Amino acid sequence: MNTPTEHPIRWHEPGTSRVPFWAYTDPALYQRELERLFYGPHWCYVGLAVEIPNTGDYKLSWVGERQVIMVRDRVAPKERATDPGIRVVENRCAHRGVRFCQPPMDGQVGNARSFVCPYHQWTYKLNGDLAGLPFKDGVKAQGAGGECVHGGMPEGFDMQQNGLTKLRVAVLHGLVFATFSADAEPLEDYLGPAVMPWLDRLFKGRQLQLLGYNRQRIPGNWKLMMENIKDPYHPGLLHTWFVTFGLWRADQKSRMVMDAQGRHAVMISRRNDGGQSAVTEGVTSFKADMKLHDARLLDVVPEPWWTIDDPQNPGQTITPTVTMITLFPSVIVQQQVNSLSTRHIVPRGAGEFDFVWTHIGFTDDTPEMTQRRLRQANLFGPAGFVSADDGEVIEFSQDGFNQWGADGHTLVELGGTADGVGEAPTEHMVTETLIRGMYAYWKKAMDL
Amino acid sequence: MNTPDLVDPADLQSLLLHHAIDRFNADYAAALDARRFDAWPDCFTEDARYWVQARENFDRGLPLALLALESQGMLRDRIYGTSQTIYHGPYYTRHVVSPARVTAAGAGTADDPIRAEANYAVFRTKPGSVSEVYNVGRYIDAFVRTEAGLKLQERRCVYDSEMVLNSLIYPI
After folding, report:
1. Is the per-residue pLDDT at B142 higher than 70?
2. What pLDDT does residue A2 have?
């Protein structure tokens, strides 16, 4: 009998300091992740408001494996104060399921007055409402008994019930999030008070400037990328540039913040001068003699907004040089010195995801600052001096899980075995607590 | 056979120029495919610029590039990074470069370089694995003439491939 059964997988180990390999490799579990996480009551990143500046501008994006259209709708003047005018609808015709909207090419930004599926010309407003369809009321003809109507949609066909799937949309400081779920709490509650000050620090009150995109396809489970940016242990070991030039290493003042449920996190740190110290002893990636031929690659200039009132210590300020924000399940927001980007996770099966980097600056940046941001982009992205090896180790991690099989597990015990959820932030980086925190939430959300 | 009267001297000039660029590109590709990476910066002038940039950014006038190097020194830093600092699964590359198309037959000076384009396809082969189409695009170049032959003042590799296959380590 081919009856559906309850998923047999269970997380038997106590706590989350051992993550079973099946969490990264099981196809049925991955389907459950799509349903419960990406299509469930979570807000997923889809893009930036600045990418669609004019009415009718649209861009294709993804929520999980579903392609969506992010579009700027017409908004009545009296509603402009409360309605940012950005809609997100699924790219799937209500009639025959066609993914009809095609990507713009040749340097164009997509722009539409309405969306039309070419198959049978069902036409939708920018907000996804069905506006019309051919032969809805049939075709008049002369029959034996005089005039009659051939075909048409049945009586009672409700246009309002047959639009595109509309997602709920929330825009925060120009970042656009969407959810298929009616149950997701308001976005700011979803992100939570521990994380919000760090998003405010980057973007509040500023106009973003789009610098461009980098895209990579990584043959590993999507969660490995979340783990990578919740893992402050590796950067000073894997990444020569970080340890040698003091951009990220274990002797820096740093803080690991998570939200009340353990799903989102912020890794915060302040760079130092690099060079030899106790934390470089025996670290093979540390290159004491490394000198750049062209020092402009690390031409870091502090920006005023780096300093804020310390959310953790009222009355004091804090000046991080790096904040890496993981917003479960779909995006990472990066500030690493003068380089700013969003990194969108688009899962493609249990063993693969696309990683889309959108680099940004601010509209009031000087040309020199824009140049600096672009130059520092050499450190990040699919070819980055730092980030290229993250994609590589994720691929090799997945290889390792696959070769052993489902009953293996990863070990996540640096800094103890507790998940740290609901506790004060860790004030150092010699810990894997943020990964344990994410799996505490994941286990619950996945009902495992 | 003596046919000089039949050959337009301008055509001959053009032929020689195209031939010189094709030879340059063949040597450039051979250095990369033979993994003689230290020879790569020598293909460029001291103040050369080198980009590897997604076509979507190039076509839209968005400035971001995958690699954006602004001097021969930065090219050397990239090679040091590639060989000494970026942990990666090693791979062979095979560049197939089309004949050049000269778009502006300048004098070959810094102020009036020779501008040319060529299509390329780079295949990747990891040891123990199959060959894959890795990066496909075109070179948009500015050449200057030096005592050591043609050198790149600018090379912009604009790639069609919408996805980098995980990472891009070695130059294109």
Report:
1. yes
2. 47
- A173 in Cβ contact with A203 (< 8 Å): yes
Nearest of B16, B14, B12 to residue B149 by alpha carbon: B16
Give the CA distances from residue A141 to residues A135, A138, A154, A157, B156, in Å, rounded to whole numbers and listed in that order. Answer: 13, 9, 17, 22, 63
Cα–Cα dist A421/B14, whole Å: 70
Residue A340: what are its φ and ψ, rounded to 5°? -125, 135
Nearest CA in chain A to B51: A378
CB A411 within 8 A of CB A17: yes
Q: How confident is the model at residue A4 (pLDDT cuts 50, 70, 90)?
A: very low
pLDDT of B2 reads 57
**pLDDT reported for residue A3:** 47
pLDDT band at A122 (very low <50, low <70, confident <90, very high): very high
A191 has a pLDDT exceeding 70: yes
Let me know how many helices (H) and strands (E) chain A has, helices first: 10, 23
Do A392 and B87 count as a contact with CB atoms less than 8 A apart? Answer: yes
Element (H or E) spanning A215, and its range? strand A208-218
Report helix, strand or coil for A45.
Answer: strand
Is A109 near chain B, with CB under 8 Å?
Answer: yes
Which residue type, as a one-letter code, is found at position B78? R
- Max CA distance (Å), chain A: 98
- Residue pair A52/A60 in contact (Cβ under 8 Å)? The answer is no
* Of B78, B87, B163, Cβ closest to residue A354: B163
Q: Which of A48, A245, A283, A297 is the best mutation test for B, with the most CBs of B within 10 A?
A: A297
CA B122 distance to own-chain centroid: 11
Q: For residues A350 and A25, is the Cβ–Cβ distance under 8 A?
A: yes
SS3 of A377, please?
Answer: helix
- Put simply, whether A372 touches B (Cβ < 8 Å) is no
Contact A293 B76 (CB under 8 A): yes
Rounded CA separation A403/B151 (Å) = 47
Distances (CA, A) of B157 to B49, B95, B104: 11, 13, 18
| pLDDT tens-digit readout, A90-120 | 999 999 999 999 999 999 999 999 999 999 9
A420 to chain B, closest Cα gap in Å: 31
Q: What is the ipTM of this complex?
A: 0.95
Which residue pairs from A26-32 have beta carbons closer than 8 angstroms and sit at least 24 positions apart in sequence? A26/A350, A26/A406, A27/A349, A27/A350, A29/A350, A29/A446, A30/A221, A30/A347, A30/A349, A30/A350, A32/A7, A32/A446
Residues from chain B that touch A60, judged by Cβ atoms under 8 A, are: none
Query: Which of A62, A109, A216 to mutate to probe the B interface, most B CBs <10 Å?
Result: A216
Enter the pTM of the model: 0.95
Pairing of β A168-172 and β A146-150: unpaired
* Three-state secondary structure string covering A262-313: CCCEEEEECCCCCCCCHHHCCCCCCCCCCCCCCHHHHCCCCCHHHCEECCCC
